[in-house]
Design brief:
- By secondary structure, this protein is α+β, with helices and mostly antiparallel strands.
- Helices cover 24% and strands 17% of the residues.
- The strands form two sheets. A three-stranded antiparallel sheet has the order 1-2-3, with no helix packed on it. A two-stranded parallel sheet has the order 4-5.
- A hairpin with a 4-residue loop joins β1 and β2.
């Protein structure tokens, strides 16, 4: 996470302030960029009930498929901002076959 913070602090200078305790960039209009993590099942609790307009998961294949689905379930809200998810990934790791099925093989399941 620090590699993202260290990059974003100078990039957002004058536009947003970073709060290390909340791991959040807050823009002057009230918008936020919130940084999170998921290393265990218990870490998913921090996302319960949250609503995001945009979700970006770095190294997504390192997360278990069920974790990815629970986090992306937070992609919702009542505003008109277009909702979207971005993933970065490298081949291999625990969810490799899940992402390959979706984005390479394009084999979708009902629901």
């Amino acid at each position: 996470m620090n590699n993202h913070v260290n990059f974003l602090i100078p990039m957002l200078h004058g536009m947003a302030r970073y709060n290390r305790t909340d791991k959040e960039f807050r823009f002057y209009n009230g918008s936020t960029i919130t940084l999170g993590y998921c290393a265990t099942d218990g870490d998913l609790d921090q996302y319960q009930g949250a609503e995001y307009d945009v979700i970006f998961i770095d190294e997504a294949t390192n997360l278990r498929e069920e974790w990815v689905k629970k986090i992306t379930a937070c992609l919702r809200g009542v505003n008109d901002f277009p909702k979207r998810v971005y993933y970065t990934a490298n081949p291999g790791s625990v969810s490799h076959t899940y992402f390959r099925r979706l984005f390479v093989d394009r084999q979708y399941e009902d629901g």
